[in-house]
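Good morning C.,

I know you're traveling, so I'll keep this short. The sequence:
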Amino acid sequence: MAFLLRRQLNDEEKQTILTRFGRKCFATGHPIPESETVQFDHILAYAAGGESTLNNIAPMCAQHNKEKGTLPLEDFRIKLKLKDFFERGERQTLRHLLTYLHTQGDIPAFGCSVSLTNLSDGLIQIESSNMKHLGMVYTCPVTKWKYFYCTLDASLIDSDDEDEDSAGLQPRYLIQDKVFSMFRHFQNNTVMQPSIGRIVNSKIRIFDGQHKIAALLLCGRRQFECKIYIDANIRLLNQTNIAAHDAYAQTRFFSSVMVRKLGSQFGEDFEHYKRIEEPSPKSESGFMEYLTAIDKSATRGDLNKRFRSFLYSSLIENEENKLKPMISSSNRRSDANPITMDMLEKSIFSTLLYREPLPHNMTTDEYKRDIEISNIIEVMNMLHELSLGSWNPASGPTDETQRKLSRIIGSKSMMAWAEIFKDALCGKLELLDEEDRAMPLYRKLTEEQIRSVRKMVERLVSWSRWRAPASDEIDRVLAGNKKEIKDWFRSHGLTTGYLLGATE
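The tokens, ready to paste straight into the viewer:
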């Protein structure tokens, strides 16, 4: 039955739609109360090819019909579905989405095991418990790795995340806006490039193109064009993948993801280095020389970047770190995750962490890297317990406590007070030598010293100007550069002397 877009549905037509869908909002499937008037809208917009028939009309509650704006109804439903998915956690990958869709009943299975059988004429058979696929095997002219192209069912793919039995190559987390925009794009446009994965323990894991597959899944697609490596060298493939998503990428890594990926790879190599007999004695600087020898493609700058990422990851991912839930997985801070990796790197890590490879023998008491990590986490936890743990984005900027905390963890603010804090810390620990001052927490602290550090943190977060009214000069100052902020802090009482016990 056809009807004009601008005319109202009659009662019979409305009843036909309600009989088909029930008195449920098409957006989420929730019941529409009898006290509320049912509204009706196009599932697929006419402008997008939707037909002007009752088969393309669905019931809507008033709230969702208003919220959807100009979005087609089906697109709005997917937008709400994505919102529900991303609210379940911050670090979401394709595997999380596959799990979500599976629990929703949208896909019957994913990540099923496969077996590979080489056939004649360069063909390979990919077989699972309920299906068979054929692909053509190719050889990379540079690495000699074998790979094949194939259209794979959703039941055969998984995300290349880290597991207990294998390191993952998945370089990024899903970005909500990117998935949704690609979902809308793929409704009317073709896919230009296949997703890329590898065989891991008889499973196909995707490490490039997860946003593409995520968007296609939401479009209703259940088969995906893929390029799958069969026998790639995991180390070189990981380095290639990181470069593809960093130096040569159109969409850059998130800083915290880069830290985790590089830190994880570096950590595995570090553990292997400590187990081998030669060279001896073992040290961080010796490890860097070892890496230079076995990885000819890596520059010294590359290795230093991996080393620092390893140290940062050791701090951020530590189970004892109470600030971890506040650290954003993206390059941007959010209300729920107001601290970024960049902020930490340029403040607490740059002042309290010694970030160069050490020559100290790791089998002797001279080597104190674990103690340094523990000390810095102790300071971060003090910040959490004495102040930042009260962060509550729901309270808004008019709340006095939230206003204070926002000032403390402002990007330039952290950089400025971290340097003042380091100077006070060196004074409290009586560190006069330049080398000692470069590594202030690379030492075993006494209980008395720990109490003194805690008192300094307490004085830092209790500085009176943090609680100044919204119209105070401090907000204008904190928008400036680090030097100006640091000078202003000192001129208004936030000095090393104050942190050590003097009055403001």
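Safe travels,
E.
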